[in-house]
Specification:
Number of strands: 7
Strand order of the largest sheet: 2-4-5-6-3
Radius of gyration: 17 Å
Shape: globular
Strand content: 25-35%
CATH class: Alpha Beta
Number of domains: 1
Helix content: 25-40%
Oligomer: single chain
Bound molecules: coenzyme A
Number of helices: 2
CATH topology: Thiol Ester Dehydrase, Chain A
Distance between the termini: 17 Å
Largest sheet: 5 strands, antiparallel
Order of helices and strands: EEHEEEEEH
């Protein structure tokens, strides 16, 4: 596999804005967690494709906890960025906020770490471009990502793929 050129984090930052309709909610008018998860996966996948320039598959999503809900008629704001790249996989951080477009209130809902694997036309894992760490924030997130990866790999079965 030829090593691809490194890319800036800013080149693949992805944002999405969704309006919460009755079809997205439960009987209490609060958004379904599964719907938020689907948007997280989509936003993160676009970010991963922008970074890798190839097709990607979702390998895993770390544990999630929803801090606050979002109700019908409110807005969901998603922002995804690459935190770290490995050999054929990369980690994406997605931050999700709620917004009341009428009052301007914004609140945090959930953050998610999603791991994608870049695949070639035969669906075999293929190498990903490294990220260029430019800011203290980039470096802090990349360092923490290495620890999360170690935990994932040990859960996967004795560090396979490290
Ligand atoms: C993800 C997948 C491609 C890994 O294939 P594999 O044969 O196990 O490949 P490898 O063991 O060579 O691992 C490839 C990379 O995936 C990573 N990986 C595999 N499973 C992982 C998991 N559960 N969590 C995080 N990373 C994982 C490995 O660490 C490795 O990364 P690296 O090259 O950066 O070190 C394969 O399991 C797959 O296709 N899963 C289904 C994906 C899918 O259908 N997703 C939902 C719809 S998109």
């Amino acid at each position: 596999m030829k090593a691809p050129h490194e890319k800036r984090v800013s080149e693949s930052v992805t944002t999405m804005t969704e309006y919460v309709l009755p079809t997205h909610t439960n009987a209490l008018g609060s958004i379904f967690g599964g719907q938020v998860l689907a948007w997280i996966d989509l936003c993160a996948a676009i970010c991963a494709q922008r970074h890798t320039g190839s097709a990607v598959v979702t390998a895993g999503i770390d544990d999630l906890s929803f801090d606050h809900g979002i109700k019908v008629g409110q807005v969901v704001r998603l922002a995804a960025r690459v935190t770290a790249t490995f050999r054929t996989s990369l980690e994406i951080l997605v931050s999700v906020e709620g917004e009341d477009a009428m009052t301007g209130a914004i609140w945090p809902m959930v953050t998610a770490f999603v791991t994608f694997v870049a695949v070639d036309a035969s669906l075999r894992p293929t190498s990903v471009p490294p990220i260029l760490l430019e800011t203290d924030d980039d470096r802090r997130l990349a360092e923490a990502a290495a620890e999360r990866r170690a935990r994932r790999l040990s859960r996967r079965g004795g560090g396979r793929g490290a």
